[in-house]
Design brief:
The structure holds 2 protein chains of 2 kinds. By secondary structure, chain A is an alpha/beta fold. In chain A, 32% of the residues lie in helices and 24% in strands. Chain A contains 12 helices and 14 strands. Chain A has an 8-stranded mixed sheet, with helices on both faces. Chain A has a 4-stranded antiparallel sheet with strand order 2-1-4-5, with helices on one face. Chain A has a two-stranded antiparallel sheet with strand order 13-14. Chain B has an 8-stranded mixed sheet, sandwiched between helices. Helix content of chain B is 35%, strand content 23%. Chain B starts with a helix and ends with a helix. The N terminus of chain B is likely disordered. In chain B, helix 4 packs across helix 5, helix 4 packs parallel to helix 6 and helix 5 packs across helix 6. By secondary structure, chain B is an alpha/beta fold. Classes of the chains: A alpha/beta, B alpha/beta. Bound molecules: adenosine-5'-diphosphate (2 copies) and magnesium ion (2 copies). The site of one magnesium ion has 4 residues of chain A, from helix 1.
Chain lengths: 340, 345
């Protein structure tokens, strides 16, 4: 599988009256064609801002992409002119959101909104676009598609609206779908429907997916690769099974330990909680953002952010940004080296 | 049919006979009005439509189900924050639905509520100290100012907030801290029973366990009884002794937590549990899901026949569409389900 996108040293900040918000701090990763990347982390950890930066949808001001590159099919998206970017958005890269109403126009019918994109990006005429729109709605499991095209967004339930969004997002066969918490507002039975749908469409179209979620369970079921964010940084990343089974960052470990399971009955023991609260994103600490809450912390953690590298004995794709080996609770050799 | 573990769990709860709250055939219908000048009722949202359950002293009963199924309305109607359309609610042996307002006000001291959105439920113009002491002032419990302040500070300390912050305002706190303020306020009158309505749904994953641990510690310490409303089925399994599953204003299954989770009887409970993702990629790969069709029908127009028949993957032609909605039947000790298939076949 070839490389589809490479994010390099992405830095995005918001310059607000209350100070600078360090939303995304030096995020780098590679996404392969057809790969599903799950991005997890609590609210405020920079998941959405990282995705919006890739899409160049950050409100500027107060936001600013201060550095980095996003390579996609030989182009650095951050350097494109806005009309060039507009052609990529929707056609090559599509995005769906938690609240479909943020990207649906309430006063236009669903049909008008889908056909508009088809005419713009695919150069279709009215009749072809109408037919394709009906096909797309059927494909995402909306019955009676021809009639439903004449409906307005408010005439759909939350789950159905998310299906409409998916239909619109996939209308131009994008190579990458970025999904920002698309099931967070939905009930679990509807979430299961949407995830089932996404899996089917992924098999059918082979697009790569960046799936953002705070729910480790959802990501476990969908992602090939899992990327854990904290304080605007990637703290752990790797093949899903390794990240869940051979966890190497204290934050990931803390999250997994704090989650009760509905499929296990030895469930009444006290939950292992992560102490403290998420970081104030208006402070950029030189050290690890998780250090103040971390039970594995050593002195170096507050002084210097560790690099995102493989831990001892883990695969080359499984990276962690931590000075400590969580399996032994001992500092790693690199933590002992002092730079002069 | 029942696993030994489930049977054991069931007998454990049925040994505990001290009922603190008894709800019988409780209904709350919200009128749908129409007409511009003269409003007239054209229908009703059957938000809660004949719900019965007991809560034992010291236990946590979970109330789960998808949004709109009537969980919050049940909680509020139990506490008489909504006037019931019909039915009975007995708390510590006393009927609340017919109680005089003065007596009810007195009873309210023992029954408190914790809300999902700690921000919306806290007055933004009141300091934390005033928020927590307000119930004490309303009920005129502690007159002495110094004593009141000491009591409030001790409460804040107990829920894990620094008493130093007593003069700060809600917006100065994080979501988790605000939920602690809400909990302190609910505890101020030393209640025996608390309805916790999605108390952790709005919190970050890393904060949820903190608040759940706090609620469990407080339960031990003050011998509290909880009605725990939630849609996170994993957390419910952890925190609840028994669980009731609601669908379209009715309880479709109720029983000891392990029995319901290990041996769900109602097809809705089965689908609900199968839809919950597990944070383990290996298990997720192997899982066979029951995917329900469509959406929940409107509680203003429930289906004819069984309430669940529009989405039920195993509905039986005839009986499930023509017979009235099935009642809850005890299938194994303490474990009840409302389904024709479970009771008739
Ligand atoms: N428009 C904005 N103005 C100021 N700060 C913002 C804006 N958008 C996001 N932020 C801040 O950036 C940080 C990262 O936010 P976000 O990426 O939305 O988090 P996540 O998606 O992980 O919940 C947060 O501290 C958030 O408050
Ligand atoms: N004050 C109200 N007036 C009219 N309808 C209401 C009111 N409160 C709730 N409902 C309706 O009653 C049903 C149950 O709501 P609710 O108890 O809030 O469900 P849940 O807490 O399970 O999500 C929903 O259809 C809701 O729209
Ligand atoms: Mg977000
Ligand atoms: Mg509710």
């Amino acid at each position: 599988m070839g490389v589809l996108m490479e994010v390099k040293n992405l830095v995005t900040r918001f310059h607000t009256q209350e100070g600078t918000v360090y939303a995304v701090n030096d995020v780098s990763y590679v996404l392969n064609e057809g790969e599903t990347l799950g991005v997890v982390g609590e609210s405020g950890s920079g998941k959405s801002v990282h995705a919006l930066s890739i899409m160049r949808l950050i409100a500027m001001p107060p936001g600013k992409i201060e550095g980095g590159e996003v390579w996609f099919e030989g182009k650095d998206l951050l350097k494109l002119k806005s009309d060039e970017m507009r052609l990529i958005r929707g056609a090559e890269i599509a995005m769906i959101f938690q609240d479909p109403m943020t990207s649906l126009n309430p006063v236009l019918t669903i049909g008008t909104q889908i056909t508009e994109a088809l005419k713009l990006h695919m150069g279709m005429n009215d009749k072809d676009a109408d037919n394709r729109a009906a096909e797309l709605l059927t494909m995402v499991g909306i019955p009676d598609a021809k009639r439903r095209l004449k409906n307005y967004p408010h005439q759909f339930s939350g789950g159905m609206r998310q299906r409409v969004m998916i239909a619109m997002a996939l209308s131009c066969n994008p190579k990458l779908l970025i999904a920002d918490e698309p099931t967070t507002a939905l009930d679990v039975t509807i979430q299961a429907q949407i995830i089932e749908l996404i899996k089917r469409l992924r098999d059918q179209f082979g697009m790569a997916i960046v799936w953002i979620s705070h729910d480790l369970g959802v990501v476990a079921g969908l992602a090939d690769t899992v990327q854990v964010m904290y304080g605007g940084r990637i703290v752990e990343r790797g093949p899903a099974e390794e990240v869940f089974k051979d966890t190497r960052h204290p934050y990931t470990l803390g999250l997994l330990r704090s989650l009760p399971r509905h499929d296990a009955s030895t469930n009444r023991e006290r939950l292992v909680q992560i102490e403290g609260s998420p970081p104030d994103m208006r402070q950029l600490s030189p050290g690890c953002p998780f250090a103040p809450r971390c039970t594995y912390k050593i002195a170096r953690c507050e002084q210097e952010m560790p690099s995102l590298i493989p831990g001892p004995g883990s695969s080359a794709e499984h990276l962690k940004a931590c000075w400590v080996d969580v399996r032994t609770n001992q500092p790693l050799p690199e933590a002992e080296v002092v730079h002069v | 049919m029942s696993s030994p573990a489930a049977a054991q769990a069931a007998s454990v709860t049925s040994n505990n006979h001290e009922v603190i709250l008894s709800v019988k055939d409780l209904k709350k219908h919200f009128p749908i009005n129409s007409g511009v000048i003269i409003q007239r009722q054209v229908g009703a949202v059957k938000a809660v439509d004949g719900v019965s359950f007991d809560v034992m002293k010291g236990e946590t009963l979970g109330l789960v189900g998808e949004s709109g199924c009537g969980k919050s309305t049940t909680g509020r109607t139990v506490l008489q924050l909504y006037k019931p359309t019909s039915g009975s609610v007995a708390f510590e042996g006393q009927e609340l639905t017919t109680m005089k307002p003065g007596d009810l006000r007195h009873m309210r001291r023992k029954m408190q509520m914790i809300f999902q959105d700690p921000f919306a439920s806290l007055n933004p113009r009141m300091s934390v100290g005033n928020i927590v002491s307000e119930p004490l002032k309303i009920h005129n419990i502690i007159q002495n100012k110094v004593e009141l302040q000491e009591y409030v500070e001790a409460l804040l300390q107990r829920v894990g907030l620094n008493p130093y912050y007593v003069n700060r305002y809600p917006h100065e706190f994080s979501g988790g801290q605000r939920q602690r303020i809400g909990i302190a306020r609910a505890l101020a009158l030393k209640p025996t029973f608390i309805v916790a309505d999605e108390p952790i749904s709005a919190l970050d994953v890393s904060i949820q366990a903190q608040v759940v641990n706090l609620l469990e510690d407080l339960q031990q310490e003050f011998n509290l009884t909880y009605l725990f409303i939630a849609h996170d089925l994993s957390m419910v399994r952890h925190i609840c002794d028994r669980v009731a599953v609601m669908y379209l204003g009715k309880i479709v299954e109720i029983g000891p937590t392990d029995a319901v989770y290990d041996n769900p009887l109602h097809p809705y409970t089965q689908a609900l549990l199968s839809a919950v993702p597990v944070p383990d990629p290996m298990i997720e790969k192997m899982r066979q899901r029951v995917i329900l069709k469509g959406d929940v029908p409107s509680p203003a127009h429930p289906p004819i026949g069984c309430n669940f028949n529009t989405r039920c993957p195993v509905a039986v032609p005839g009986i499930c569409f023509q017979e009235p909605d099935p009642p809850l039947i005890e299938i194994e000790p303490g474990h009840w389900a409302a389904c024709h298939r479970v009771t008739t076949f």
